Amino acid sequence: MIKNAILDPGDQFHIGIVAPDFEATAARLTEVLGYEWGPEVGDLVSVDLPDGKSVELNLRCMYSTTVPRLEVVRSVAGTLWEPAGEAGMHHIGYWSDDVAADTEALIRHGYLTEATRRGPQGGLFFAFLRSAEGFRVELVDRAAESGISRCWAAPGGAV
Hints:
Elements: E1 12-19, H1 22-33, E2 41-48, E3 54-63, E4 70-74, E5 89-96, H2 99-108, E6 112-118, E7 124-130, E8 136-141, H3 145-148
Parallel strand pairs: 1-4, 5-8
Antiparallel strand pairs: 1-5, 2-3, 3-4, 6-7, 7-8
């Protein structure tokens, strides 16, 4: 790792793609790039926005069982979970041992918080932040790793 870097590249665990057509995107990634998929997961999730409002969104996704790991997310109109232009990459996801501290460090480097979610103990469970250049990072509490990793433990087969 580069000395004084905020995040460790070894903590990067997925590249997120928000898809306007979820099934077609996953099928195309299978057909062309050979990706296999775990089950679709998700539910209604309460998310805090920078203006202090909380909204409840139906966030659903599917992780690849193939590495490097991809996450295909169902688009949610009118939110940050909309397709990211022609390139398709929406965010890069990182495990974090301290989501609040890593969020503050990214803010000090010019990132803006787009959405956060509190975990059961009240600390940040995840945070989405965007740089001035448009690069988006998702920080996820490392305590969730064992649960989230079940999403890619056994192939769900091609979509």
